[in-house]
Design goal:
single chain, 573 residues, Dipeptide-binding Protein, domain 3, seven-stranded mixed beta sheet, five-stranded mixed beta sheet, 17 helices, 21% strand
């Protein structure tokens, strides 16, 4: 069957972005990111921007050129929490996806330079209005069972993500949210309003041919390819049944040999398919023979590295920097949008009282919390889930602590003698989370807000993180603020742990998604951020600095701000 080919037409918004760059309204790296999203190859986008392109192993591949003169073979040992691998579409930890990332792959891949490149896709293009996206898949990609990789399989994955019974967070991504619509279930909410559910729109997905798939969105989405590297969007084989670890069919260079949750995960390079045929990996040469993940909690990973038990780790906290600097390794930092969202459910008492929430907001000195927990590292949070590292971040007037105002608002909310609250904390990403809550407790105590900290095992916290009325949830980095806003704060999406529902917020977020001009986009993003800040339901005082470490014998170990592991070109020597 003949397959469609990209038109090679330059998207008009690339010209718009180029004009903005030439007028000094868009920086060069911002231009590269946008041009790549709109279908320009990364190398060409860097050339258009007048920047040197990062060396690539192959111009057609998303992976970086391997460092030095690579040597094949060896086992890379990594300290990280070893977790279940049930259903990739419902993964809720980056660690789960790292174990699976070498087995199953993504349509697109966002690199450490924040530029998105084709992965299982070989190219894509968007309509002028950014409502129609066509993806052209790589020919010759094979699954581990010998099947060909096809557009129908991609369609099956995306359709599956939108099934409300599955509960995949992918439905909250802007790209996927633009493919669904709200429908009346025929039931009523407690307040008598119709209960709505999300459903895939008729005609939203079109399989053009075996290697071409087209998505028809109800609104413009600039970040469509970028959304498809969020960690639960890995493409799985349609024969999938949970748990994934029981039958791990993928297109990647490794397969699962052994998984013992809480102990180890062993991956081995694929050399032949499950039916005995040679396996020819589409992504070029891979150097490691095996990858071994060993289970260590965040506070113990550096100890494992110091003892020689592992060659690299997932991450270590700022409080361990002096220890890390004393070790013989490469410290790899990254500025990130990793954070702790200390959030409430806006529809549950007492947090359905907005005046109480505003009192809580007024009682915090976020810069002081950052200083106490991270010193000069990290960034100060502002109670909206967009970080200074995000390209669409809009600067708002800083939040200033006002104890007298907090006390007055507390009295106005009906608590003249103060209020007792309890926050659930799991230290799921290290003890710094407890430290943040303790600093908030001390500041709130001066305002009459008496906070108790319910410290629980991280495994127990993840059982209740989206159910507790007041919890401190770790959120990993996303390359765009709009990605996490869509995944976490749109009404009805699975990861909306606050039960936030604000049509004005969502309309502004939709508008921001389609704007190229960074100044015009920041105007809209300022409105998005201000709405979220004014509603005072997330207290987000700090953005976490991210560090990892690897031995000097580990080459090409990627300090990705998302903490995603992509070891295709890592080698030992």
């Amino acid at each position: 069957m003949p397959t469609a080919t990209p038109s090679n037409r330059l998207h008009p918004k690339v010209d718009e972005a180029l004009d903005l760059m030439q007028r000094g309204k868009l920086d060069r790296r911002g231009f590269v990111r946008i041009a790549a999203l709109l279908g320009v190859g990364a190398t060409a986008a860097y050339t258009m921007a007048g920047l040197p392109a990062p060396a690539a192993a192959d111009a057609a591949l998303p992976f970086a050129e391997p460092e030095g003169e690579p040597v094949a073979g060896g086992v890379l040992r990594v300290a990280m929490q070893v977790q279940r691998m049930d259903d990739p579409a419902t993964f809720s930890w980056a660690e789960m996806s790292n174990q699976a990332r070498h087995i199953i792959e993504y349509l697109a891949m966002t690199g450490v330079d924040n530029v998105t490149r084709p992965m299982l896709a070989r190219a894509w293009e968007a309509s002028d209005d950014l409502k129609t996206w066509t993806f052209y898949l790589r020919p010759g990609v094979k699954w581990h069972n010998g099947d060909d990789f096809t557009a129908a399989q991609v369609a099956w994955n995306v359709e599956r993500w939108t099934d409300t019974a599955l509960g995949s967070s992918n439905v909250g991504l802007s790209a996927v949210a633009a493919l669904v619509e709200d429908v009346d279930t025929g039931d009523e909410n407690d307040d008598g309003t119709p209960r709505m559910a999300k459903r895939l729109r008729d005609g939203a997905i079109e399989v053009v041919d075996d290697l071409t798939i087209r998505f028809h969105c109800r609104q413009p989405v600039l970040s469509f390819p970028e959304d498809l590297y969020d960690y639960p969007t890995a493409i799985i084989h349609p024969s999938f049944t949970a748990p994934f670890s029981a039958n791990p069919i993928g297109t990647g260079p490794f397969t699962l040999v052994d998984l013992t949750v809480g102990e180890r995960c062993t991956l081995r390079r694929m050399t032949e398919t499950t039916n005995g045929e040679p396996f020819d990996y589409w992504g070029g040469e891979v150097f490691l023979d095996e990858i071994h993940y060993y289970n260590f909690d965040s506070e113990n990973q550096l100890v494992a590295f110091a003892g020689g038990d592992v060659d690299a780790i997932y991450s270590f906290g700022h409080e361990q920097m002096a220890f890390a600097e004393a070790l013989d390794g490469q410290i790899l930092p990254a500025q990130t949008a990793r954070t702790l969202a200390v959030r409430v459910k806006v529809d549950e008492a007492p947090f359905d009282n907005k005046t109480l929430r505003l009192a809580m907001q007024a009682g915090l000195d976020r810069a002081r919390i950052r200083e106490l927990v991270f010193g000069e590292a990290g960034d100060v949070g502002e109670d909206f889930h967009v970080a200074p590292v995000h390209p669409e971040y809009a600067e708002l007037p800083p939040l200033v602590r006002d104890v007298d105002r907090a006390k007055a608002l507390l009295a106005e909310a009906g608590y003249p003698d103060g209020i007792d609250l309890t926050v659930d904390v799991g230290n799921t990403d290290g003890v710094w989370q407890q430290s943040v809550c303790e600093a908030m407790r001390d500041q709130w105590g001066e305002c009459g807000i008496r906070l108790s900290i319910n410290l629980m095992p991280s495994s127990r916290f993840w059982e209740i993180w989206d159910k507790t009325p007041f919890g401190a949830t770790s959120w990993s980095h996303r390359p765009l603020g709009t990605m996490v806003l869509s995944a976490a704060y749109r009404a009805g999406v699975p990861w909306n742990e606050t039960n936030y529902d604000n049509p004005e917020f969502e309309a502004a977020l939709d508008e921001a998604e389609s704007i190229i001009d960074p100044d015009a986009r920041r105007v809209v993003m300022a409105r998005v951020q201000q709405i979220m800040q004014d509603d005072a339901f997330v207290f987000l005082p700090v953005w976490q600095p991210f560090y990892t470490i690897a031995g000097h014998n580990v080459h090409g170990y990627p300090p990705h701000p998302t903490s995603y592991h992509q070891f295709n070109k890592v080698w030992l020597g």
